[in-house]
Design a protein that fits this description.
By secondary structure, the chain is α/β, with parallel strands linked by helices. Helix 1 links the parallel strand 2 and strand 3. The protein is globular, with a radius of gyration of 26 Å. Keywords: Disulfide bond, Glycosidase, Hydrolase, Signal. One of its GO terms (biological process) is carbohydrate metabolic process. Belongs to the glycosyl hydrolase 17 family.
Length: 587
């Protein structure tokens, strides 16, 4: 939630940012805002928590962070992303907009259910005329870029902080201020054409009468009857919704959907009405409200509501309230119970590194049996003793232990996509197969040290291949069955044309591969060398398919080599995966 001046008198400032809900013809659902300005757990752990422990099915993030997006891959959670404010002027150029979509959306769209693309955040309140004047053109260009990529289901919008003259007693008389009518007319016309929602943050906390807090938190209070419409309001949230509708309708855009990006209540501030009890009462009733059809002025619309926020964010500046909107603490413990935890509130285990038993192989064992399966090949290692080895889950290890191992390893920068839904080694009924794959990946990353396979006594090193019929665990040296300690790579053939290589890049980027490293600003972007760019991205795809030689064919323009194709600025690592200097892992 951005810092904005607040008013308790008319006119008031309503902020709009973050995850949104759309007024649609489907059952309402509860979503959550995932901010990151604090000492939080790694994205993979956060996403696993949202997916497995809560009922939230929609999440909004405040950028397009690839680490977070990778964590959402295969989760079936709706995700909203944002173009940073500073990028807005550049997005007016359609070519730049298409490049942004290619780098931030195309690599993920097959694994992530994108919902909205937000263009900037609270631009009007920035008072930056360059951003304000370019906002709608940037939205138009990005909308065209999504259309060009056949991603028309992703709706373009922008969060606002704006002033509405809100009449507490007659919500139907609420209007946009005169100096902002032209701006919002252009915004609303875009939404009409694009069929996307107008976004508002419905914070009754900032618009309430301090002498009537109960009305703002759905508590017992005197109702308000609009003298124009004779509609009665028993809570301020509905009044704020209808005030927004009335302002839009006065400009001729009453049919445009409204999306609430944020709503919530802080547990602490410099006033007596901030408390866990009030926050729980407000958010519990907001969740109930999401199941109710319409408002007095919008009786046939459903409202999807996204609560602010998932976590308390101790890194946020400003008054105390800014750091205390979360439903949960950073360690995933609940601030209060509003019924969003599956199975109710229960103590969660502490998040700690897997302990080592004084350097001995206690819960983990080294084995010489390859744990790979026919579809999920687990890379071999030296096991600390020179023989090919793998780290596997012990037979007696419990599912709770193994799930904890998975959660921890995924938080350490290990790629967990292969064991996620849709991944080659995902088997929902075989925890041991999934945990063995990911424990072995961690074991490899630590140089095949036996200590790295301890996992509190739940892992062991073996020299027997642990593959199963559905999960072959890859031998690190690459495809074709040849084991080479130098590794294999997929690279562009010397005779391949630029047209072929650009087609390879475009196709791979559409398959869920992260193309940011070869985009402008990426460490492997070289505008004068398409072979470098195409080799990097072709090799990444080759890796994602388990080093299969067929995955390096590219209609005859690719070739598998044991000669490292890295350049001085773009390091392509063979066998165990591809990486670039000072850049996070990618698909």
């Amino acid at each position: 939630m951005a810092k904005t001046t607040r008013f308790f008198t008319l006119p008031f400032l309503l902020k709009v940012a973050g995850v949104i809900f759309q007024l649609s013809a489907v059952t309402s659902a509860i979503g959550i805002n995932y901010g990151t300005l604090g000492n939080l757990q790694p994205p993979q752990q956060v996403v696993d928590f949202i997916k497995t422990k809560t009922t939230f099915d929609s999440v909004k993030i405040y950028d397009a962070n690839p680490d977070i997006l990778r964590s959402f891959a295969g989760s079936e959670i709706n995700v909203t992303i944002m173009v940073p404010n500073g990028n807005i002027p550049a997005m007016v150029n359609v070519a730049n907009a298409r490049q942004w979509v290619a780098a931030n959306v195309l690599p993920f769209h097959q694994q992530i259910k994108f919902k909205y693309l937000c263009v900037g955040n609270e631009i009007l309140s920035s008072n930056d005329n360059n951003l304000i004047s370019n906002l709608v053109p940037a939205m138009q260009s990005l909308n065209e870029a999504l259309k060009a990529s056949n991603l028309t289901y992703i709706k373009v919008t922008t969060p606002h902080a704006f002033t509405i003259s809100f009449n507490h007693n007659t919500p139907s008389e609420s209007r946009f201020t005169d100096d902002q009518k032209d701006f919002f007319t252009k915004i609303l016309e875009f939404h009409r054409q694009a069929k996307s929602p107008f976004m508002i943050n419905a914070y009754t906390f900032f618009t309430m009468d301090p002498n009537n807090v109960n009305y703002a938190i759905f508590g017992p209070s005197k109702s308000v009857t609009d003298t124009n419409t004779q509609h009665t309001y028993n809570n301020m949230f509905d009044a704020v919704m209808d005030a927004t509708y009335s302002a839009m309708n006065a400009l001729g855009y009453g049919e445009v959907d409204i999306a609430v990006g944020e709503t919530g209540w802080p547990t602490a501030c410099d006033a007596p009405w901030c408390s866990p009890q009030n926050a729980a009462n407000y958010n519990l009733n907001i969740i109930k409200r999401a199941q109710v059809i319409g408002t007095p002025l919008m009786p046939n619309r459903h409202i999807d509501i996204f609560i602010f926020a998932l976590f308390n964010e101790d890194g946020k500046p400003g008054p105390t309230r800014e750091r205390n909107w979360g439903l949960f603490k950073p360690d995933f413990s609940a601030m209060y119970d509003v019924g969003v935890l599956k199975g109710g509130i229960s103590p969660l285990p502490p998040i700690n590194n897997p302990p080592i038993n004084n350097g001995k192989c206690g819960s983990g064992m080294v084995t010489t049996t390859n744990p790979s399966t026919s579809t999920c090949r687990i890379p071999i290692g030296e096991g600390g003793g020179g023989a090919e080895s793998w780290c596997i889950a012990k037979q007696e290890a419990t599912d709770t232990q193994l799930q904890a191992n998975i959660d921890w390893v995924c938080s350490q920068g290990i790629d967990c996509k292969p064991i996620s839904p849709g991944g080659q080694c995902f088997d929902n009924n075989n925890m041991k197969s999934r945990s063995t794959f990911i424990m072995n990946a961690y074991y490899q990353s630590k140089g095949y040290s036996k200590d790295a396979c301890d996992f509190r006594g739940s892992g062991m090193v073996t020299t027997t291949n642990p593959s199963t019929s559905t999960c072959p665990i890859p031998i690190a040296e690459g495809g074709g069955g040849t084991e080479s300690k130098s590794g294999n790579w997929c690279m562009a053939k010397q005779e391949a044309t630029e047209t072929q290589l650009q087609a390879n890049i475009d196709w791979v980027c559409s398959q869920g591969i992260d193309c940011k490293p070869i985009s402008p600003g990426g460490l492997c972007f070289d505008n004068n060398n398409i072979k470098t760019r195409s080799t990097f991205i072709m090799n990444t795809y080759y890796q994602s398919k388990g080093y299969s030689r067929e995955a390096c064919d590219f209609k005859g323009s690719g070739i598998v080599t044991n000669t490292n194709p890295s350049t001085s600025t773009c390091v392509v690592r063979g066998g165990g995966g591809t990486s670039i200097s000072n850049h996070s892992e990618f698909f």
